[in-house]
Amino acid sequence: MIKITHLAKRFGRIDVLRGVDLRIARGHVVGLVGPNGAGKTTLIKTLLGLTHADGGMIRIDDEPIGGSEDVAYRAQIGYMPQIARFPENLSAAELFAMLRDLRGASTNLDEELVTKLGLESQLDKPLRVLSGGTRQKVNACLAFLFRPKLLILDEPTAGLDPLSSAILKDKILAARSEGTTVVITSHIMSELEELCDEVAFLLDGVVRFMGPVRELTSSTRQANLERAIAALMIREVA
Amino acid sequence: MTGVVRRVVRSQLRDALRSRWLAVYALFFVLLTDGLLRFSGSDAKAILSLTTVVLIVIPLITLVLSTISVYNAREFTEVLLAQPIRRSSLFAGLYLGLTLPLAGGFVAGVALPFLVRGGGEPSQRAALLTLLAIGVVLTSTFTAIAFWIALRAEDRLRGLATALGVWLVLGLLYDGAVLVVVAMFGDYPIERPLLAMTFANPIDLGRMLMLLRMDVAALMGYTGAVFQRFFAGAPGIALASAALAGWVLVPIALGARLFRRKDF
Fold first, then answer.
1. Strand pairing report for A181-185 and A29-33
2. What's the domain count of chain B?
3. Which residue segment(s) compose the domain that A55 sits in?
4. What is the pLDDT of residues B62-95, one digit of tens each?
5. What's the total number of domains in chain A?
6. How far, CA to CA in Å, does A82 sit from each of A79, A214, B66, B78, B185?
7. Looking at this predicted complex, what is its ipTM?
8. For position A26, which CATH number holds?
9. Which of A22, A23, B206, B261 is 20 to 30 A from B112, alpha carbon to alpha carbon?
10. How far is B93 from chain A (nearest CA, A)?
């Protein structure tokens, strides 16, 4: 579904992405891992068109994307950013209505998470009075609201309590079983192990490894993903 | 596409109308105008005093509030950018969503005390309308400048400092610089350079337009006298208005261009 070739991006003098090649098959859940500053968020933002690449190509369903006015493809993307900050004086219900309005979306919305995360009682309060975790729940609901074919989740469970985190993970797996493609970044390896079909290990702006979790653990002879990634990082740095 | 702009503006307005800063801003103009009308004796004097305050306060408050709100909306802007809408439409929506409440707060705040007095002295209505128009124009200009600054500087503190610097230069230091030029080159025919200097500052332009309208330009400094001599009557007002329009459109165009190209 997504084919990224030789993607390059430089901020000032820093090469953040230095030729990223990545293929993500339809209906797969792919975890992006790598140390801080490896380029995970930049990769995601380039995929969304928030950041313009300096070189390379991204194709979604064989259609090359890019150009600031090329926007139609985003209708099938659900994005959950790392930090959730919304207009303070609006309520979550108004926020949902606004985005529905902006997308001109149909009535066929996925509001399952709102119920499951117990957000109904919070829907009419101004977003400014909600706690950070509750805002993160609103953020999660937004990503799923329009039944996207591609979900992009940047550290989705950060700031969520264990119960909500489990509900969100179940939702991700349910979306996957319906054929949704998912790209996740996370620093919680057990979570990626649980969710992902494949992981892509990003270091210094290049994909160093891409494959199933099992392959990574066996090739590094480690017991779990966390140790396998740690082993990879040590090997790459050494 | 205009539908998208309208939808963004609508939700921005809903957010702004519930915020405290807008109420305080409008209330400030109500109290100021009411006080001046009470104590100035005549509407003409009140409008003249009001002009002085408006020319300082609007650029300052607009720059500060707009810069802060662009920074505060940064994360939400990213959410909006990830929607299937064009950046140019989004920029138009965000810009209007900031400019309209500020301009509306100013107009409502100044107009209300006049309205409760039955519209004020009929002879001063044209001057009052000019003042309102200049206030709206300056709001539009400085929101656009604030947008540009906040998009340009990643660091909030630096952005806010730049915004204050712009206000300090255009609002306060500029007149001082004009005076210095006059003092140093007073023996030469410097009318034309002075005119050029006026056109280079939207606040000065606004002041000039207001003074030409009220026919008191000679009272308010050297540039005023020069301006009146060169552009007595309709051509001068037309030229200054055209320049002010430029001061609105150019910052908007620059801000929109930056917004389209920026990496968020």
1. parallel
2. 1
3. 2-237
4. 999 999 999 998 889 999 999 988 899 999 999 9
5. 1
6. 10, 27, 25, 11, 59
7. 0.88
8. 3.40.50.300
9. B206
10. 11
